[in-house]
């Protein structure tokens, strides 16, 4: 990796510098658009006491669920935790801190962090356990709670295509949290299915400009389906 060229040749290089105790922001929704190989590298390194911001925590044995097996996650801020039995077990036994966060609030935490905004007011969660202990303001007769934004030590992201300058395009619903996560990391690492030369991606189709991206790696992906429902004819 040199100058504007953000490419790295190995997942070990892609996650260089990650340490125990860090905060990691992960793109993806369910198993759609998750940075599965970057997660696998975190698993391989064995770093512990991680704080994760992600919509969910994968499933048993795949995605972020891999990091639960060796208790690498100490705290997770997530919107949905219903597809992972090991996650449920660790939560009920008090082995992991779970901060349930409304989906829109989680998205805005990432977006605001990437924009340099330290906090924002939202009506979502007021009058519920989510709002307990948080500052409350009234605007135009409606109550709002103060939510802090987030910037991760690392942001791990899955894209479809990128050029070597780090400009990224996401495909269909795999866009989900990925563009938001990409802006909110001190070090942002993106794995993609294809790396092309600068100029091959139409400028008006780029979702994440390369200015946000520190490292790009091309990988291959399982793209597992979270739930398959088959109709019996």
Automatic annotation (TrEMBL):
Q: Name the UniProt key words of this record, in alphabetical order.
A: Transferase
Record's InterPro entries?
Answer: 3-oxoacid_CoA-transf_A, CoA_trans_fam_I, NagB/RpiA_transferase-like
From the UniProt annotation, give the residues forming the signal peptide: none
Task: Output the Gene Ontology terms for molecular function.
Answer: succinyl-CoA:3-oxo-acid CoA-transferase activity
Q: What class of enzyme is it?
A: transferase
Q: According to the UniProt entry, what is the EC number of this protein?
A: 2.8.3.5
Is Transferase there in the keyword field? yes
> What NCBIfam families does the record point to?
pcaI_scoA_fam
Q: Which PANTHER family match?
A: ACETATE COA-TRANSFERASE SUBUNIT ALPHA, KETOACID-COENZYME A TRANSFERASE
Q: What is the name listed in the Swiss-Prot or TrEMBL entry for this protein?
A: 3-oxoacid CoA-transferase subunit A
Name the species this protein comes from. Answer: Halomonas organivorans
